[in-house]
């Protein structure tokens, strides 16, 4: 699953550590989510989307063929 988290972090001048602190996870978790190595739970996806004032669908989307 692809996502726009890195883009949104840049738009909000936020590091991975900043985002992790705001939603209560580790920086490594944010890194894994950004790289598509980890798919967040629905609750975590909602928290991230709400922080950036986006819908979950705007932030996360399937790769072609998924």
Helix-strand category? mainly alpha
Shape type: globular
SSE order, one letter for each helix or strand:
EHHHHHE
The order of strands across the largest sheet is 1-2
What's the structural blueprint in terms of helices and strands?
Elements: E1 2-3, H1 5-11, H2 16-23, H3 27-34, H4 42-51, H5 56-59, E2 60-61
Antiparallel strand pairs: 1-2
Helix pairs in contact: 2-3
What does this structure look like?
The protein has 66 residues and is mainly alpha-helical. It has helices at residues 5-11, 16-23, 27-34, 42-51, 56-59; strands at residues 2-3, 60-61. The mean pLDDT is 95.
Care to give the gist of this entry?
The chain is mostly helical and 66 residues long.
List keywords for this structure.
66 residues; globular; mainly alpha; 56% helix; 5 helices; single chain
